[in-house]
UniProtKB/TrEMBL annotation:
Keywords from the named record: CBS domain
GO MF annotation list: [protein-PII] uridylyltransferase activity
Organism: Synoicihabitans lomoniglobus
Domain CBS residue range list: 183-231, 248-299
UniProt-listed SUPFAM superfamilies: cAMP-binding domain-like, CBS-domain pair, Nucleotidyltransferase
Chain ranges of the Cyclic nucleotide-binding domain: 20-138
InterPro entries assigned: CBS_dom (IPR000644), CBS_dom_sf (IPR046342), cNMP-bd_dom (IPR000595), cNMP-bd_dom_sf (IPR018490), Diverse_CBS-Domain (IPR051257), DUF294_put_nucleoTrafse_sb-bd (IPR018821), GlnD_Uridyltrans_N (IPR005105), NT_sf (IPR043519)
Listed name of the protein: DUF294 nucleotidyltransferase-like domain-containing protein
Amino acid sequence: MDETNLIPDRIATTLRRFPPFSMLPAESIDELADKAQVRVLVAGEKVWSQGDPPGTELYVLVRGRVEYLIITDGQAELVAVRDEGDLLGLTPLLRSQPARTTAKVVEDTVLYGLPWQRLQRLLAEHDDARHYVNRHLFWTSRLGGETETMPGPEDNAISGRAKNILQAHLAGGKVIQPRAIERLLTCSPDTPIRDAARIMAQRRVPSVLVVDDERRPLGIVTQSALVKQVVAGEMPRDAPVEGLMASPVITVSSLSSATAAILLMLRERIGQVCVTEDGTTDTAALDVFTNKDLLAQSGHHPAGLLREFRHARTVGRLRELCDEVEEFTESYLDAGVSAIFLGQICAELYDELIQRLLEMAVAEMTAAGTALPAVGWAWLSVGSDGRREQTLRTDMDNALVFADTDDPAQNSAHRTVFLDLAERVVTKMVECGFSRCQGGVMASNPRWCRTATEWKAEITTIGTSTEPEELFRGIVLYDLRYIAGDAALVRPLRQAIIDSVRGNAWLQRRLAELVCETPPPLNFWGNFVVEKKGDRAGEFDLKGRALAPLRDAARLLALKNNQLRRYSTGGRWEDLRRNVPKLAELAKVAREAYDVLLTLRLTTAIARHDSGRFVDPSKLTKLEKARLAHAFDVVRLVQTHVRLAFSLDNR
């Protein structure tokens, strides 16, 4: 071997151990290694000082330890610690701004300095590596300033609101296949509505695309818009379609997968999606697809499963469909779909499952000569089901509410019938692969099958009770969500929950204490804190020590700030980010952290065939450990905010 190549070869070998370099081609790493500079520093030296201009190299910490300090009035505040495999100096390089911290060496350190301009070009060409760097930037942005992202190639395959769903194409997805351009029905914006309707009828299509002279999409006119605005409304038929069209047009690239496009349509609740040359409205339209068109191209997907659930006639068939839900859950996780978003998809499917099981149970009772009482009733999901976060078939959480009569004996008789209904549904859910709740949170339990008055009284009592069990029941109830039956019975219950918490400083404080009572399993030096003995030795409780604090904080802050539109933890953090300016930054990182933690729990559950609650950190990759450590850091930030916001004692 040529001795002159020894150092670059060693550098390349080392770089391949760490992300994002492990995600780059071997020849790219060799090229970086040839240009790398080795820098050795001893404890006490500085890599850079606060205020220094950005250099031309990105540092990789190969050995040692570096602390990030913010110097204010001569006082140093420790804000972060970097160790083996971490990237140093990325934020100043990307922003072309002076360093906001001082990087001080605390253990003898070896750094590799890599040429930033060349590395930047490589990252733009490789999605996985760029995504890792974006994640690194996201977490480091908590030191202050705006979150940045690495620019990618001119990749506009997905436009507008679709980016958060379709950024990563689903692995194995079939690419959309635009049909002959002659099939595309278009018109200009000044075309009279009458003419547009006529050509739609002649071609028997549900929409017409409005385009400019270069066939770029401007809007879309649908049959439903024609009926609502023209037939049933007052819009004149000779008015131009520009006043009727829906705009902007949701677009995808011809390089998008059909499955991803369907997910987009589900998320945006649209009936058609437009395919353009580059996925934006700035290039020519190639085709317009309906959900049915895409079904023929994509194979199995959530929309198809939803229809299968609605038409299933046996519990055995429903069990098969639940198996398929978990199969696509695993494939979507592997493809990088957000765990929060995936929970929303699964919730829609499981809601449909429960409605079908209710229909089957009612039919059985009717056949046996038992009729449901002539009072309103509603099936509720509570707990994780209520938050739309159940993606795998773990234990169920549900309840039932029914309308009161003036006769207590009649109420008792009605309860007996509804308990029969609930037991039939719960039994069928078990047959479909779900587990009975060990805590008894099921509509088949008399404590979770109550009249509307009884539920309201209990919700009110929770606000004054000192019993821990009552608080637990309250937390489960606070996430209640209507599934089937009479929705009018559920709205007063949700309002009762809001009223019981709003203005009740004592209850808010109790809920805040619950958020803060358990610290995340990460010590000051960045090491995971695990159980020392017992069946869980070497593991930590991901649910109890990380997911639960973020979940409970989102619920508490949403109630306090009147952000009540969403049920899910991710949705609550998103509403807080959008609508409560003082919480915007905290809510943003909290939602991202929750998604990371939820994804880890799901992947752990799938790998170990259990609930995924406990995690062995020794089984994680360096990238997973880094993400997890950052997420735990956010949990601590959220707990600190809650302590201050609700005036809890320092701990």
